């Protein structure tokens, strides 16, 4: 089984082969997803939500994300590991973005970084790619800008479609190797996918993108409360784990566990 690196994703687009990306935040799940042959793992700043319990991705820092990225790299010998640059770590300009991305490369061993924004971060993308750091862009609904966007809303509707197309072209021209499109109308995502030479990765962007991404806790039924429309639950890991914990506690209470077979 081959290792996935950025040029393979370009190759897959050329061959019309769709691929998937999942988030991962630790060694154990990274191992499982690598064994499942998920070609790209994202150490998302969604760790702020699903690992640290915040309402938004805004509070998480590089100091918090880097150890998670390092663990995912250790757990996934085949996957391309992409790490999110957190809010506040790249907006000031290309030099700030470079300093942050270098940390994710040197301290975590990430293979690529992802940052949010289109035209407004084109300079950052150009500087990183110029330094040999592959960049995945992220346009449409960008969670770090939730306050500016006025909530969790579909982007690129109506007149905003032209700006989304301009953002997609800008990140491609700046050197991004792929672009995530989050919560955009399926037709528009398809149109952008056909227009771009780099792969598009959809989340709430319909089925015409070159790839898909989901937060693993969402797709495996491990998140609390209501999930977004774009989430499909492929398993009920939360229910399984809750059940295992309850059965363990019950057996301890009843003196059933540990049995002789677990004892020395
Ligand atoms: O942080 C994240 O999980 C993401 C994906 C949902 C694209 O950015
Ligand atoms: Na993210």
Automatic annotation (TrEMBL):
A biological process (GO) annotation for this entry? pantothenate biosynthetic process
Q: Name one GO molecular function term.
A: methyltransferase activity
Summarize where 3-methyl-2-oxobutanoate binds, as residue positions.
45-46, 84, 114
Q: What does the note accompanying the cofactor annotation read?
A: Binds 1 Mg(2+) ion per subunit.
Task: Please state the Enzyme Commission number of this protein.
Answer: 2.1.2.11
Q: Tell me the cofactors it needs.
A: Mg(2+)
Q: Where is the active site?
A: 182
Q: Which reactions is this enzyme annotated as catalysing?
A: (6R)-5,10-methylene-5,6,7,8-tetrahydrofolate + 3-methyl-2-oxobutanoate + H2O = 2-dehydropantoate + (6S)-5,6,7,8-tetrahydrofolate
InterPro entries under this entry?
Pantoate_hydroxy_MeTrfase, Pyrv/PenolPyrv_kinase-like_dom, Pyrv_kinase-like_dom_sf
Tell me, what's a Pfam family for it?
Pantoate_transf
Q: Which parts of the sequence bind Mg(2+)?
A: 45, 84, 116
Q: In which pathway does it act?
A: Cofactor biosynthesis; (R)-pantothenate biosynthesis; (R)-pantoate from 3-methyl-2-oxobutanoate: step 1/2
Q: Which domain of life is it from?
A: Bacteria
GO cellular component, as recorded = cytoplasm
Q: How does it assemble?
A: Homodecamer; pentamer of dimers.
Give the similarity note.
Belongs to the PanB family.
What this chain does, per the entry, is described as: Catalyzes the reversible reaction in which hydroxymethyl group from 5,10-methylenetetrahydrofolate is transferred onto alpha-ketoisovalerate to form ketopantoate.
Give the protein's recorded name: 3-methyl-2-oxobutanoate hydroxymethyltransferase
Gene that produces this protein: panB
């Amino acid at each position: 089984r081959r290792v996935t690196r950025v040029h393979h994703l370009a190759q897959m687009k050329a061959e019309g082969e769709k691929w998937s990306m999942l988030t991962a935040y630790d060694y154990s799940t990274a191992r499982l997803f690598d064994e499942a042959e998920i070609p790209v793992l994202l150490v998302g700043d969604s760790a702020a939500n699903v690992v640290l319990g915040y309402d938004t991705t805004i509070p998480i820092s590089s100091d918090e994300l880097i150890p998670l990225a390092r663990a995912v790299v250790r757990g996934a010998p085949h996957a391309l590991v992409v790490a999110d640059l957190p809010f506040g770590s790249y907006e000031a300009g290309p030099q700030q973005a470079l300093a942050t991305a270098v940390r994710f490369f040197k301290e975590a061993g990430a293979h690529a970084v992802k940052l949010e924004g289109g035209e407004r971060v084109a300079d950052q993308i150009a500087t990183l790619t110029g330094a040999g750091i592959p960049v995945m862009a992220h346009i449409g609904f960008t969670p770090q800008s939730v306050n500016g966007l006025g909530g969790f809303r579909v982007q690129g509707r109506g007149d905003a479609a032209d700006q989304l197309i301009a953002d997609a072209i800008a990140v491609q021209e700046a050197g991004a190797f792929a672009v995530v499109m989050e919560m955009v109308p399926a037709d528009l995502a398809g149109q952008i996918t056909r227009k771009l030479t780099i792969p598009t990765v959809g989340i709430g962007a319909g089925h015409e993108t070159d790839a898909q991404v989901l937060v693993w806790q969402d797709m495996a039924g491990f998140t609390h409360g209501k999930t977004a429309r774009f989430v499909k639950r492929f398993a009920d890991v939360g229910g399984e784990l809750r059940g295992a914990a309850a059965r363990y506690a019950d057996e301890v209470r009843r003196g059933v566990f540990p049995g002789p077979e677990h004892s020395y």
